[in-house]
Design goal:
single chain, 363 residues, alpha/beta, D-Maltodextrin-Binding Protein, domain 2, 10 strands, 36% helix
Amino acid sequence: MPEHSPIPAAQGPRRRAPTRPRPDSASADPRETCAPVATRGAGRRSLAALAAACGLVAAAPTCAQAWPVKPVRLLVPFAPGGTTDVIGRLVAQRLGEPLGQPVVVENRAGAGGMIGYEAVARAPADGYTLLMMTIAFPINAGMRKDLPFDPVKSFAPVTQLVSLPLMLVVHPSLPVKNVRDLIALARARPGQLTYATSGHGTSPHMAAAMFTSMTGTQMVHVPYKGNAPTLTDLLGGQVSLTFGIAQAFLPHVKTGRLRAVAVTTAQRTAFAPQLPTIAESGLPGYEISAWQGILAPAGTDPAIVGRLSREIGRILRLPDVVERLAHEGAEPVGSSPEDFGQYLRSELARWSKVGQAAGLRID
């Protein structure tokens, strides 16, 4: 899908005296509209104070009027067609209705997502630019030097959208039926087994790196440019195994062309309840799930962030959305900005430690 043209900046609001809403009318939350309410008989000094507080002197773009008044951009830092793009477009399409303005998806791919991350970090904090991000965000932030932004201070967390369980899958020629078999084989053949991933710093890469670190084994990393070539070579037996989003592999597991060994989550999953977790299969403490969320530029009005979080949470609970997400192998989350911020900070710390322990760096 072609990139959308950038949305032109909105004109500043007209200067007009704020008015008190009628008591019997349904008014918007003033925290979301930023519109102050003038008291009857306010003098010039009071009006001047209200104008200054509203930012009319600085011509603040969202004050004294409802947000949004123009389309909102959702930047997806990956190419069209992938899971992140599909889920981002699903949410954007549904979000436009309650906001009263379209949410336009713009793919800004390149440099492992860094181009899109930096674009949003530098965007105005006016509520009109959002970032669709994944677990690759904290992974890359912990493994790269000289980031052009601060992964915490440059963004305002909005919500975690979904969690995506990963599955450990092997080619059927490999004499592996369970996790203990794989550990034993890897120890017996150090540096001979190969694992495919969709690229450096991706969730499959970190899942494998954490597995080898915790088991004291050595396997060769074979990075590909995306999931499609990963699957092709695994089916052909050119690589031994992979960790990946389960829905991409389940059809081939059912036909016997691949063998599912375990899932990477802390608990068994609803889509494959017969598969044990890696943790229960002999590697206690092992757990990783891919995930996706939404960030805004730092300084975005908390009322706008809160409204976005609430609307997206409602969307994620819609039955047809839940069904569509399940088709992508995703489980809805819909966390609050505060909870997502705490989770993001914990993920940044976690993957920085994993990367250091495995000696992984992205230059």
